[in-house]
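Backbone-to-sequence.
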């Protein structure tokens, strides 16, 4: 089976009086429209991993994530679409929620493990699938050189030039891929990473690990809102206003923090007048399921 999706990821301009006041133009690349379940950077990171599994004649995808992991759901859906079995090793006590329901609906088997054991994912893979020649290891979030390779292709799709690109960061794989794409096209666009973790400066090492060449980029570490999976009333309020004003759904774990950072930096005159800024909608809107009580 040919492992590919028809990419439909248009670029939409976003209007806001804030942008007019500071004389900048803001655009959003709608990777959330690629697929309802395998959306955004989830697909881009999985693409070459699935091809690698296929080339190695392995038919059982084994991956990792938390109880509300968009990566688990995307892997489950991709496995169903392209004819793989799938197992998700889930961090923490056994629970039942909307995200895991969708994973199981797509045929994914779930294995729950304690948080200490979860830290050593290769050991967990060996424990459960060490004797299974059909099993293929996929790291949490699709973090890998193959993942970065897929994300680099986003730059190939751009038909306009931008002064800045913004993207949320979890594993650093997407950021590294886009930076690699900018480098390969010899573009001077400045990449701006928004880590979603508290004390997110460590993400620079994760990004650099997958870079194909040294690169200069900006890391904005003040927009974590308490840490991964955390949100404040201010962030929730911003998301509600953004969705109501644009009709584009963002969520509190990744895209909400990234868009808040962009709006805040524009308000602080971080960008030169006349700047064109592209934000990457990295999908993952199912992250709303874990925080819907906050809305």
């Amino acid at each position: 089976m040919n492992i590919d999706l028809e990419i439909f990821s248009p670029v939409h301009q976003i209007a806001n009086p804030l942008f007019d006041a500071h004389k900048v133009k803001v655009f959003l690349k709608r990777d959330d429209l690629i697929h309802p379940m395998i959306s955004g950077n989830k697909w881009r990171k999985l693409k070459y991993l699935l091809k690698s599994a296929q080339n190695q004649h392995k038919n059982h995808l084994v991956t990792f994530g938390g109880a509300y992991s968009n990566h688990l759901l995307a892997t489950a859906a991709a496995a169903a679409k392209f004819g793989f079995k799938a197992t998700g090793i889930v961090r923490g006590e056994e629970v039942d929620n909307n995200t895991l329901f969708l994973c199981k609906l797509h045929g994914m088997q779930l294995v729950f493990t304690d948080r200490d054991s979860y830290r050593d994912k290769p050991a967990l893979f060996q424990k459960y699938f060490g004797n299974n020649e059909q099993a293929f290891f996929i790291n949490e979030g699709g973090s890998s050189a193959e993942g970065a390779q897929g994300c680099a292709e986003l730059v190939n799709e751009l038909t306009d030039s931008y002064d800045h690109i913004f993207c949320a960061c979890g594993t650093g794989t997407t950021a590294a891929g886009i930076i690699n794409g900018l480098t390969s096209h010899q573009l001077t666009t400045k990449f701006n990473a928004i880590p979603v973790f508290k004390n997110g400066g460590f993400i620079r090492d994760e990004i650099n690990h997958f870079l194909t060449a040294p690169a200069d980029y900006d890391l904005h570490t003040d927009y974590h809102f308490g840490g991964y999976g955390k949100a404040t009333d201010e962030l929730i309020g911003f998301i509600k206003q953004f969705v109501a004003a644009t009709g584009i759904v963002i969520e509190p774990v990744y895209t909400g923090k990234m868009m808040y950072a962009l709006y805040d930096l524009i308000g602080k005159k971080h960008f030169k007048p006349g700047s064109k800024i592209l934000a990457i909608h990295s999908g993952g809107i199912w992250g709303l399921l874990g925080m819907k009580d906050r809305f």
